Task: inverse folding
């Protein structure tokens, strides 16, 4: 297997959609590929990275930067490709792109019961911060 890290392109949509449906089966409609990808492509598309095995999408990560803080979203790795360093490669590549934009602090959210990904982020130097995450939907979910 020869894994490459590259930016998202339109021909990757079906592969990303399939991956996210497999890895995030319980995600709400606004996190589905047909909603999230066009939104990401409208803002900092260079921060949407894929790990590819030939022509197959095997992992994704999206980032964002508002000039003050960076964020990590949608880190997903196909189950059969986990524990091979692919997630680490994606995060390192995203961190480099964010650093180039002037980002010096990166945040992310992880579901509390996702212990496997928590251990990955801790190995990469991320720490749990004493914060409470709040959220508010500003619009009704878009129809699928």
Result:
């Amino acid at each position: 297997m020869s894994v490459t890290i590259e930016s998202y392109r339109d021909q990757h949509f079906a592969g990303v959609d399939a991956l996210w449906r497999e890895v995030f089966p319980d995600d709400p409609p606004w996190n589905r590929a047909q909603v999230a990808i066009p939104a990401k492509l409208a803002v900092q598309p260079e921060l949407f990275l894929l790990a590819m095995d030939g022509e197959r999408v095997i992992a994704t990560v999206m980032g964002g930067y508002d000039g003050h803080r960076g964020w990590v979203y949608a880190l997903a790795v196909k189950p059969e490709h986990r524990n091979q360093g692919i997630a680490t490669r994606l995060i390192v590549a995203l961190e480099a792109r964010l650093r180039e934009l002037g980002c010096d602090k990166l945040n992310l959210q992880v579901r509390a019961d996702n212990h496997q990904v928590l251990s990955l982020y801790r190995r990469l130097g991320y720490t749990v911060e004493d914060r409470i995450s709040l959220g508010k939907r500003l619009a009704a979910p878009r129809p699928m």
The chain has one domain: 3-123. Strands lie at 3-7, 48-53, 56-65, 70-77, 106-108. The radius of gyration is 15 Å. The helical segments are 13-23, 33-42, 86-100, 115-123.
